[in-house]
Amino acid sequence: MAEEAIIRFLSSKKVKGAYQSEIASSIGFSNSTVSYFLSKLEDKGTITRSRNGKSGYRVWLKGFESNTAMLRFGFVRASEYPFIFDLKAKLESEGYGVYLKPYNDGISLMKDLVSGKIDAGFSPLVTQVVFYAAFRGCFNIVASGASGGGSIMLRRGSTLNEVKAAGSTLASTMEVCLRAYLNENGLNDVKVTHFSDPEDMVRALERGTVEIVSIWEPYCTILEAQGHRRIARFSDYLGDVPCCLMAIGQLSHNQIHDVFMALRDALSKRSYSSEVADRLSKFLKLDAKIVEKSIEEYTFHPEYTFNDITNYLKRIGLEAACSWIFKGLKRI
Q: Could you tell me the residue range of the domain that residue 159 belongs to?
């Protein structure tokens, strides 16, 4: 069954091929199972595999091998990226292969970007600032993306004076807004736990391990449907300024230009159909109606100005980063 599924999937990819990890996530078998059957298929001469640096193996059906450039995009598992499919289609129409990889948090994504395992990725700007400093500007930041789309959620049946523990993600927009909310409400003694998986954070709120979480969509909408209360939105603290932007690694000048233009076109749509929401929900493996509703919490921006970025960095206490982060900031 796995062998036939692999062949069908690679047949659909033709000259673009696919990364071994993409095959596993797409056909629903484990990495070890896919690896086993790929070895068998390679021995039979059915497929061809080629090592592609730190990204792993790129795989084709025999006879479809190609030098087509493969662009690898990462994005945090969120409803913030309905435009990713238009971006993919545009780049594929220009002859690129495109591989999309979801991540549970921005830190994991940025680790893969700076190590060359992906070529570009969407993650919180504050996370990118931290990595830009730590790795001495080894990537560029594109001033395009989305704002909004996150909230602070209070556990059902709880009151603020009962809050002892809160959940967030490390070095992120979520943490910035949570700290601001706790400080504003005199809750500075609340213990903050950092989660690397949003679903673990959701379960912690359900169990009562934490009473408050600062989390992004569609998880806010999921929690609201379960009876938990939305007590603040990120826009209450940040306004209409960027949350996640695209960071681009070591691509050629022409490739960066092509990605810029495709991203501008994708973000210019600004509103998305139920069909796109359904497609995104299948990719994220979440309920389609929840995803469609949660997309409305975001505002999409084909381009931010330097003033927008400056205001954001001022609001999160990183104004000193402006002078050097602008060296790596690209506008479409």
A: 150-238
